[in-house]
């Protein structure tokens, strides 16, 4: 019966009583009472709804009050055991921090929209289903038809050289079509963006113009507005600064940024004879379209494909074989959504990042298991407190809520710190992505996705680690807990959940250790791989002669002079010039050795390098048989070549290679005079550390007078010490020969390391988290064993009093630990065997199921586990027998 | 309506200003002191009691009445007292104003 019914019944009873007392008959009194009350149903309904509102408000107030009290008690509880709380918070901060860091990088790379107007209407135009790059002539035609969509733009990333000669001062550059800023809807902070008028050959009405990025403006010009109108010299060509782009705008390619943007048609000014703009065979431009408001991707693709035949016909690259010509004409254009911009990083790093996210997810799981164990261990100790609370009238719900709030408090603090850790961590990781050739600038924002992810993590971990303790605490029978607080003969009953958690923790640690082993092993075997040359002693300089007044035909002589000058410098033991250097590029011919093996037309692929004498000496590559090139191998002398062992294996077979004649086709040029093999050299890395050494043919630079290489590599071997110390003297000496040459230096080691970026990151992250997992597992095992020992103090004392040997106590305790660890190892081994298959493509030099690695991880964990268990076990063995009498 | 409702609230608050009472007492007190002049339904008085409880002007407690029945007793809160004072004041001003109007009307006629 509701309160309102009781109240009204009372009212009617009283009214009737008083009327009867005044002389009314009972029946009349009832009627009169009803009359006086009015419409009973209406009033009842009104009162009832008011009462319900009152009830709701009271319940809410009670809840708020309860939560406030719980929170106060939670703070007290955390402060009561500071060590547990600190361990929990630190492991959560690391776990949540690592997850958030990796998630925020993925977020920045994959999901973050470009900071432009209506990014969802941007689309990437592709010349076929796989490729994203277009040629200059294709863009010229395409932009005439921009009306098919709302607008189109083209851009390409580049590096501009700010120095006037000698050593280069490279900054990140951007070639952008005149429509670029208008189509993106991006303006300037000061000055003006450039327009189609500026995008004219040789410059628009204001001559060649440039925009600078906000960061560059702040760094080089300290943010002064006077920068507008100043002259900026890029690759020795003057440009006028007309504006500064807004902060946060790094161009449409994620992971790249620009310091300076110039109109696309200014590219020939900068690259001069090496310009790509009119080249039909150079695919270097990225094209974006802004769709009309109601236009779909499909409609845009259909409209663009309408232009395809005419664009394809008019832009056919020269020298294509008929089959390829046919393919060129047929391939349909494709259009993809591009609200998040384009990115080369995306393709390279999405998979490693996902693997890392899975790994750090496991670390978080371990941290959770640890915290759950620590909290569980506290439950019996707190049973007294909880029981007293219950006896004083606290409900079970309130107790469970209390534990949940304690958990939330822990994970809240942990997640807050984790967010800080992630800001730091993601920056460190992104910095690792940059190499000497490409500067990775990825702004990792703290947006709603990242915050949401972190909050979700915090809630998730709270549920994971508080559920066990809360359930256990709520099951407290009030009579039981007041009795025995760790006294009595408990054995290790009730430790089931704890041991299950420990087993999971050990298993996850095994998985992480195996992963660390795989990725660190991959990195080490790549970094230590016998490259076929010395990587420590060599300095490489890219020499660019585009600006030099020396005629192209005279360049080989210029390069020879550079080599001689460099070799004569103190500290230099030898020097050589080459077209490519290891991992810096590739060049391939079709070749075969007719007198040896017959090789089918499709199989005659060989990589090529053009070198001067002493190249092998400089790199420390052994000559197995024959002689090095000499200055006598001139254009007039018989043609000679040196090949590597892989070439011999592929094209020649068992017979002696020297003296045999090679026939090869040199790109578009038809025939080449017969060329004799004069030496075989050791295999050396050509394109990538990850692949088998391919067949390589080396030709002397002096026999290629028709190759006006605008850019070559000068490699210098130092007599001792760090080759980077030679940079200064080298660039001074080179400057004297020709002040218009530019040089970009790096050590060979740096050049090779740059190709191992993601292997290094994976190794770093997985190594760090493997170690962390191990540490957490050790903490967990130690904590739980120590707790179990303290609980069983009386029992152990009794055993000892009854004649058990301390050694048998030690064995008993360690046996428990070993059982848990071995079970964990077994599960972990199974899981990692299953998971390792998924990372096969990321590995090098070892198989995903390396038995030694599994064994190693198992042994390490077993040792760590026994060590963590030994300390408390020894303490148990030293329990004096009278401990039993004290507490029973 | 608001005017009447306000008046009703003031009457109830006045009744309760003499000490905690249950609903029936309030109803009876208002009936007897006004000699039954005000034709107010008892139900409306109860609705008003509950509404004022919701607003925090009154608080209630269940007790057993002298005759042994369970009854809900109401009591003024500090806020209820404040409301009573300000209600009385505005009612007196209002009544005074109306009286003046009648007096003026009598003089002119």
List the helices and strands and how they pair.
The complex is a heterodimer of chains A (888) and B (109).
Chain A: H1 3-21, H2 26-37, H3 40-80, H4 82-111, E1 122-126, E2 133-134, H5 136-143, E3 151-161, E4 166-167, E5 170-176, H6 180-184, E6 190-191, E7 209-212, H7 214-221, E8 231-234, E9 237-244, E10 260-263, H8 267-271, E11 285-290, H9 297-314, H10 322-330, E12 334-337, H11 344-391, H12 396-433, H13 448-474, H14 478-483, H15 496-527, E13 538-544, H16 555-568, E14 572-578, E15 588-592, E16 605-611, H17 615-619, E17 623-626, E18 639-644, H18 645-652, E19 661-665, E20 675-681, E21 696-700, E22 711-718, H19 727-737, E23 742-747, H20 748-753, H21 757-791, H22 793-801, H23 806-836, H24 851-877, H25 883-887
Parallel strand pairs in A: 4-23, 5-10, 7-9, 16-21, 18-20
Antiparallel strand pairs in A: 1-11, 1-12, 2-11, 3-5, 3-11, 6-9, 7-10, 8-9, 13-22, 13-23, 14-22, 15-16, 15-19, 17-20, 18-21, 19-20
Helix pairs in contact in A: 1-2, 3-12, 4-11, 4-12, 4-13, 5-9, 11-13, 11-15, 11-21, 12-13, 15-21, 15-23, 15-24, 16-19, 21-24, 23-24
Chain B: H1 2-16, E1 21-22, H2 23-33, H3 42-55, E2 58-64, E3 70-76, H4 78-108
Antiparallel strand pairs in B: 1-3, 2-3
Description:
The complex is a heterodimer of chains A (888) and B (109). In chain A, the strands form 3 sheets. In chain A, strands 1, 2, 3, 5, 6, 7, 8, 9, 10, 11 and 12 form an 11-stranded mixed beta sheet that branches. In chain A, strands 15-16-21-18-20-19 form a 6-stranded mixed β-barrel. In chain A, strands 4-23-13-22-14 form a 5-stranded mixed beta sheet. In chain A, a hairpin with a 2-residue loop joins strand 8 and strand 9 (237-244). Chain A has 25 helices and 23 strands. The two termini of chain A are 54 Å apart. Chain A is an alpha+beta fold and 888 residues long. In chain B, 65% of the residues lie in helices and 15% in strands. Chain B has helices at 2-16, 23-33, 42-55, 78-108; strands spanning 21-22, 58-64, 70-76. Chain B has a 3-stranded antiparallel beta sheet. The longest helix of chain B is centred in the last third of the chain and has 31 residues, at 78-108. Chain B is elongated. Chains A and B meet through helix 1 and helix 3 of A and helix 2, helix 3 and strand 3 of B.
């Amino acid at each position: 019966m509701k309160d309102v019914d009781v109240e009204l019944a009372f009212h009617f009873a009283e009214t009737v009583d008083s009327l009867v007392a005044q002389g009314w008959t009972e029946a009349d009194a009832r009627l009169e009472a009803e009359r006086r009350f009015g419409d009973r149903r209406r009033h009842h309904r009104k009162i009832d709804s008011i009462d319900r509102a009152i009830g709701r408000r009271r319940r809410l107030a009670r809840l708020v009050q309860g939560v406030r009290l719980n929170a106060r008690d939670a703070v007290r509880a955390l402060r009561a055991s500071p060590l547990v709380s600190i361990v929990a918070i630190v492991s959560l901060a690391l776990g949540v921090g690592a997850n958030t860091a990796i998630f925020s990088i993925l977020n920045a790379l994959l999901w973050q929209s470009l900071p432009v107007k209506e990014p969802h209407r941007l689309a990437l135009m592709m010349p076929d289903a796989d490729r994203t790059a277009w040629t200059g002539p294709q863009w010229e035609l395409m932009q005439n038809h921009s009306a098919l969509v709302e607008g189109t733009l083209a851009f390409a990333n580049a590096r501009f050289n700010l120095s006037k000669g000698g050593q280069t001062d490279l900054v990140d550059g951007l070639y952008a079509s005149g429509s670029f800023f208008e189509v993106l809807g991006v303006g300037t902070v000061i000055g003006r963006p450039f327009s189609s008028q500026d995008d004219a050959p040789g410059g628009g009405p204001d001559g060649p113009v440039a925009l600078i990025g906000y960061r560059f403006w702040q760094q080089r010009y300290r943010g002064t507005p006077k920068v507008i109108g100043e002259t900026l010299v890029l690759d020795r060509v003057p440009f006028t600064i007309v504006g500064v782009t807004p902060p946060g705008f790094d161009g449409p390619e994620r992971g790249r940024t620009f310091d300076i943007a110039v109109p696309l048609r200014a590219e020939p000014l900068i690259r001069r004879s090496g310009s790509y703009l009119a080249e039909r065979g150079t695919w270097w431009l990225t094209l974006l379209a802004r769709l009309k408001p109601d236009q779909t991707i499909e409609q845009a693709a259909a409209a663009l494909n309408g232009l395809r035949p005419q664009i394809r016909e008019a832009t056919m690259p020269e020298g294509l074989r008929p089959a390829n010509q046919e393919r060129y004409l047929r391939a349909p254009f494709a259009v993809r959504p591009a609200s998040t911009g384009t990115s080369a990083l995306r393709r390279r790093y999405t998979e490693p990042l996902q693997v890392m996210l899975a790994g750090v997810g496991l670390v978080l799981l371990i941290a959770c298991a640890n915290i759950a164990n620590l909290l569980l261990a506290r439950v019996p100790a707190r049973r007294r407190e909880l029981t007293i609370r219950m006896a004083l009238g606290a409900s079970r719900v309130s107790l469970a809520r209390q534990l949940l709030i304690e958990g939330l408090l822990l994970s809240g603090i942990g997640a807050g710190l984790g967010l800080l850790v992630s800001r730091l961590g993601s920056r460190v990781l992104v910095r690792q992505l940059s190499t000497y050739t490409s500067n990775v600038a990825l702004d990792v924002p703290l947006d709603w996705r990242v915050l949401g992810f972190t909050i979700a993590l915090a809630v998730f971990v709270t549920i994971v680690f508080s559920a066990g303790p809360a359930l256990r605490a709520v099951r407290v029978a009030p009579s039981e807990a007041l009795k025995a607080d760790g006294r009595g003969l408990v054995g290790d009953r009730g430790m089931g959940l704890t041991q299950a958690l420990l087993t999971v923790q050990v298993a996850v640690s095994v998985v992480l250790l195996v992963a660390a082993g795989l990725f660190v092993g991959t990195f080490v075997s790549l970094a230590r791989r016998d490259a076929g040359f010395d990587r420590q002693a060599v300095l490489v300089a890219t020499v660019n002669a585009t600006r030099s007044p020396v005629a192209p035909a005279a360049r080989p002589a210029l390069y020879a002079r550079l080599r001689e000058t460099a070799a004569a410098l103190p500290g230099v033991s030898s020097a050589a010039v080459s077209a490519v250097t290891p991992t810096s590029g590739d060049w391939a011919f079709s070749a075969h050795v007719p007198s040896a093996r017959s090789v089918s037309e499709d199989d005659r692929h060989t990589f090529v390098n053009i070198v001067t004498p002493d190249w092998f000496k400089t790199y420390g590559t052994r000559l197995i048989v024959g002689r090095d090139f000499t200055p006598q191998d001139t254009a007039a002398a018989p043609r000679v070549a040196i090949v590597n062992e892989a070439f011999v294996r592929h094209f020649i077979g068992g017979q002696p290679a020297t003296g045999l004649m090679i026939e090869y086709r040199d790109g578009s040029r038809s025939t080449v005079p017969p060329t004799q093999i004069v030496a075989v050299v050791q295999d050396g890395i050509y394109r990538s550390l990850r692949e088998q050494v391919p067949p390589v043919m080396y030709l002397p630079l002096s026999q290629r007078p028709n190759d006006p290489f605008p850019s070559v590599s000068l490699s210098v071997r130092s007599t001792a010490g760090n080759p980077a110390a030679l940079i200064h003297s080298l660039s001074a000496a080179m400057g004297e020969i020709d002040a218009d040459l530019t040089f970009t230096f790096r050590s060979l080691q740096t050049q090779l390391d740059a190709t191992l970026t993601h292997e290094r990151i994976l190794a770093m992250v997985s190594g760090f988290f493997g170690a962390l997992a191990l540490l957490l597992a050790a903490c967990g095992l130690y904590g739980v064993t120590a707790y179990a020992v303290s609980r069983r103090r009386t029992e152990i004392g009794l055993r000892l009093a009854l004649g058990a040997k301390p050694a048998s106590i030690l064995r008993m305790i360690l046996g428990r630990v070993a059982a848990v660890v071995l079970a964990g190892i077994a599960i972990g081994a199974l899981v990692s065997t299953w998971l390792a298959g998924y990372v096969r493509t990321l590995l090098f030099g070892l198989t995903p199921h390396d038995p030694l690695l599994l064994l190693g991880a198992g042994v390490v964990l077993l040792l760590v586990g026994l060590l963590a268990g030994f300390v408390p076990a020894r303490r148990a063995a030293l329990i004096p027998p009278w401990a039993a009498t004290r507490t029973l | 309506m608001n005017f009447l409702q306000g008046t009703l609230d003031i009457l109830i608050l006045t009744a309760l200003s003499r000490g905690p009472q249950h609903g029936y007492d309030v109803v009876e007190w208002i009936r007897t002191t006004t000699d039954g002049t005000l034709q107010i339904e008892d139900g409306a008085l109860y609705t008003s009691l509950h509404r004022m409880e919701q607003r925090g002007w009154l608080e209630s407690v269940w007790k057993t009445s002298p005759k042994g029945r369970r009854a809900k007793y109401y009591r003024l809160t500090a806020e209820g007292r404040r409301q009573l004072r300000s209600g009385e004041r505005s009612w007196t001003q209002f009544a005074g104003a109306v009286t003046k109007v009648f007096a003026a009307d009598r003089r002119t006629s």
